[in-house]
What does this fold into?
Amino acid sequence: MSGKAFSSEVGTGSREENASRHRGPITRRAFASGALALGASNRAFAQGFAGLGETADGFAAVTPGRPFSFPADHGPHPEFRIEWWYVTANLVDASGAAYGAQWTLFRQAMKAGAPVEGWANQQVWMGHAAVTSATTHRVGQALARGGVGQANVEATPFQAWIDAWEMRGRDGFDADKVAPVELKASAADFSYAFRLAAAHPLVLQGDRGYSRKSDRGQASYYYSQPYFTLSGRIVIDDRPIEVTGQAWMDREWSSQPLASDQTGWDWFSLHLPGDEKLMLYRLRQKDGRENLFGNWITPDGASREIAASDNSITPTATTEIDGRKLPTSWRVKLPAHKLDIETTPLNAKAWMGTSFPYWEGPVRFAGSHAGIGYLEMTGY
Amino acid sequence: MASENPPILSVTRLTKSYRAAGEEVAVLRGVNLAVARGESVALTGESGSGKSTLLHLIAGLDAADGGEIRLGETRLSDLGDAGRAELRRDRLGLVFQQFNLIPSLSVADNLAFQSRIAGRHDAAWHDELVERLGLGAFLKRYPEQLSGGQQQRVAIGRALAPKPLLLLADEPTGNLDEDTADDVLQLARDLVARTGCGFLMVTHSARLAATLDRQVTLHAGRVA
Amino acid sequence: MSRALWILAVLLSHWRRHPMQLATLLIGLISATALWSGVQALNQQARNAYDRAAATFGGARTAMLVGKDSATIPQKLFVDLRRAGWPVSPVMEGRVQIGGRSFRLLGIEPVTLPGEVGSAPAIGRGDLQSFVTPPGTMLVAPETLRDLGLTEGATPQANGTTLPPLRAQQQLVPGVLVVDIGIAQTILRMPGQVSRLLVGKSRAPHATLQSVAGDTLRLVAPDAESDLERLTDSFHLNLTAFGLLSFFVGLFIVNSAIGLAFEQRLPMLRTLRACGVSARMLNTVLVLELVSLAFVAGLIGLVCGYFIAAALLPDVAASLRGLYGAQIPGQLTLKGEWWLAGVAISILGALAAAAASLTKAIRMPVLVSAQPQAWQQAQRRWLVLQSAAALAVFAIAGGLIWLGDSLLAGFAVLAALMLGAALILPMLLELVLGFGERRARQPVSLWFWADSRQQLSGLSLALMALLLALAVNVGVSTMVESFNRTFLVWLDGRLASDVYINATSDTQATAIKAWLKDRPEVDAILPGGRADTQFGGVPIEVLGLPDHATYRDHWPLLEQTQNAWVRLRPGDTALISEQLSRRMKLGIGDRIEVPAPGGNWPLEIVGIYADYGNPKGQIAVNFAALTRRFPQTPLTRMGLRVAPEKIPPLIAALQDKFGLDDRSVADQATMKADSRRIFNRTFSVTAALNAFTLGVAGIALLTSLLTLANSRLPQLAPLWAIGLTRRRLAVIELLKTLSVALITALFALPLGLLVAWCLLAIVNVKAFGWRLPFHVFPLQLIQLLGIALAAALCAAALPVARLARMQPASLIRIFVNER
It folds into this structure.
């Protein structure tokens, strides 16, 4: 379904600004399901990813133990089907009001093979940008084909862009920190421009960057920079607001990260006190079972996988949006880490009310730990 | 006798004048007239004496200037065009000198259409009329295929088909030869007697006038 | 209700007894509705097609950026603009030849194509990949696929390459091939270039155009009306004018038929009133009767209109294609609104035509009171009023000629002329007949004139119809004939070569040239070529003419400097087409800069030539210079000078040797015949409608005369009574009709010539961009005069024959009854 949504977007032309008109803005999770695969999407989706044969159509497979190398890995990996550069930011203005911002660039290959220059290039790019406050939630989207320069990512000097949206390395760019960078996006009813810095190096998620998504081999390469500090300005309806805050970048690429019976997921990126970070997600399956994955990152940069055992995340309150019930408040328990928190959204209506709708927005949490973070929910 | 048989038609102090060549010409100057149920009255007078005008006023084809016309309980001056049309349709039968049949309707349809429009069509009465008027053989013909006498019979039949209160005739036999005229008038009298309605006939023929119950003569706009 | 039905039945019984009258009424209504809705159907069909064309990836409906001085824009500007926040999408456009036929190739970028562009084809879903990934997919209208005789998946050859597999796409316009932008760049050999950038309706902030593209681009605001709509306006106005004219002429018929029926039914209506039907009821039922008849006639008229439209559609489509390059599908599709509108117009038309009769019925007193002497005075007053109105309308027409400078003004002048002429016609006839009456000495001839005058009021509507139909006929046929004559002369000069060849590729062209060089019967090989570029924001053609005596001697120029052909040689001068010169207000000696791939090409205008029927502006330059400036120009076209008797064997040899078909090699005679055929079609619609209108006018005259004939018997009866034979009476009647028809026709001739002048000097210039010389064709005029009199004769014959055969008894009866 998400695949259909994307390809129909592409097919009927981009409608960049107003995502509320869109039929299918999608999330990294939907993207990750592989169902976005253009061209082959319907077929691929129908057949599912039950088997491991996906690499048979020419894309590279994700295997454990791959060494990462920067800045090269900040650039695209066209031998893999899908890839994204994903930034979420928790912001606060001078009066202390909270905001959220999202900047995402997706890459997807229509078919495998050595990259071709010009219009014959196989890549399709999609950008998502959003700004959230307690009272409003604005979304924008951009689409582009690769090969001509409308959208691309270059590792050195680092820059990722689609149309006028960009993430660009600034003077003194340190590849191991992916910082400092500047981040820009604009749409009909909002825009933002940020400067991001980081004092800590980036961290590998999963098992040294190999992120397992199912028991049947679906996986991705996954690293993050959860230590961005940020300052800049957001503009909503021509009203500028100076903000500062924290940001989190995820980089992920794969050829086939999700199993076909996985229906959606609930994903958290949380800034814990004392410079600790938590990345945690729950994959829901058709049969009602669920898998919990995550990494606990300590200030020294150590990133440990969380054992699935007695951890739990449970909805505590739901919000009804467009006739669907969304669990916008959660209780998260990780006994091994003595963590027991409840999360609440900044704006429970951080909703992309479209034909393939999803929820993405800033949250705060309290309990054993207190802080802020981002929540994304798909498949509701 | 008049008291035990109230008039169907009563005309009192009726006046009517026309404007012609810039001059007011008084045609009726206070006419009084009554026709009782079952009574046949001949209205005579020389040309221009106002007899046709009087008949038209009674028929509601024109409005009087003063005085009163009553048909049964109804005062004509109380009615508008639609009301007078309704009155003609339901309570009056009209027969003119020129036969006034509808040329595109067959005899049968000409006979029936007023009673149809009035919603008072009575099949038995219709058949009786056909028989009494001797029109049985001509029902499918069109007026132009009939003789003058036959056409006037159809006109009388059409006027009587809705069983009116009063039959008004303006020189109904004016275009017929004497024998035919007598025949037609005889038929009319018979049928009037059969229905019991009143009968007011304008004629300039003293001979025909004499065959009716009563004669009223107009002279210079008054009953002489 | 049943009362109303009974009354209706009584009213309708009249028609059963007068079927001819009913037929006339229905014919009037049907012809009015049929022609009007037929024309509407054609216009609607064409408009739908324009909408389709306009909606095809942002014709003029979307704002766009075009090169200021160049035919193409570097693709890099597209990227730069996107990165500066501009919601632009690139389009590459060019022409390709498949099997000797030229198609418009459109390269689009489906991912950035603005959503509001309209009926962008459903490339979506799984098809994007196959559309954008080489070899790609070529989307075509099903009609085009049929025309090409190809099936889906075929990969025809064009421009020396293999085209992507074809796929039918319902919502595309015929004649357009749609591919991905990258594929289009490859086919057209224009890598890294785009023709224009569509601008989406984004409200996102973006940099100024200047800061991104400097001074190289121009923003073209979206048009509510597409280019095609604007271009073809005149054609549709023309059709609409004919439709309206026929509609009104049809209503004349309805008017006289209803008038007659009303007169005949007066006694019936009186009887109904006397028998107790109220005036309101009677009027309601009269309207009900009319509406029912109009409804039935409207439906029949619509069906006829459908067939008229279907019959004319091929010619209309051919005209529009020939004149404007507009592609109209040959299958008539109609919307529900059309049917509703058709029935509505029939009913409204009938009510309008019956208005006078209905008003009379409403005011009708039950008692007859005749005031016969009044009508003459009323008629006189009416005539004066009408003539005053006519003069006012003429004044407006004069003002419009003086001030107006648009197509609409041209048509307004035409309409005003016709209306004024129609209004003043009765006065004119009155004057002529009055003059005749004063000159008459004999009693019968005195009566002849006087009675003709009296007849006028009854006939004038029909005569007006005749006048209009005749004037339009004279106007249109003069225009068509002028065009024909000019065109033939022009064609002789324009098609000066004896054999024309269009090779399938440059390679083949080279081979053909080499082969021809050895053929002794070939006196000269004249290469030709054509490039497309734009000038002043609109596409134009650049024609390459070789430096050869053939052109100097034959190519017709409207205006030129001295030695224009010699001055053409160095490649710094050009001839321009009349259309372009009028549109851009360019004259001899003006300098223009034509965008060419290598930069602007400065040219001085040394001549203006007629280029009839070309929707695009054109300039002609030296062929060698063209190939230098436009290196991509296909060199596949050439003309040959060959002695006439050697043409057939040479063509046969060429066809045999190079496998060329009839479309690729043709002799001059064939080309001329084809061109003439195309241009004849252009006016065949006009001619057909013309004939229809004249026919309808004839019917109008006939019904008016029939109406009159009945009411006139009382006037004739006394004459018969005083000793004129019926035959003599009939002859007099015939003469009277013919004389008024003749006066009308004589008046129609100058009016028609004026109409022709308007068409040639105003409407054509505005609509097509060329002005034709005005010729008068006396023989044709005499012929039309004859036709008019024949029509009048036919129309008068029936009532007159009835009169001649009328039984004396009927005359007696009338004499007696009407006293």
Summary: The longest helix of chain A spans residues 2-11.
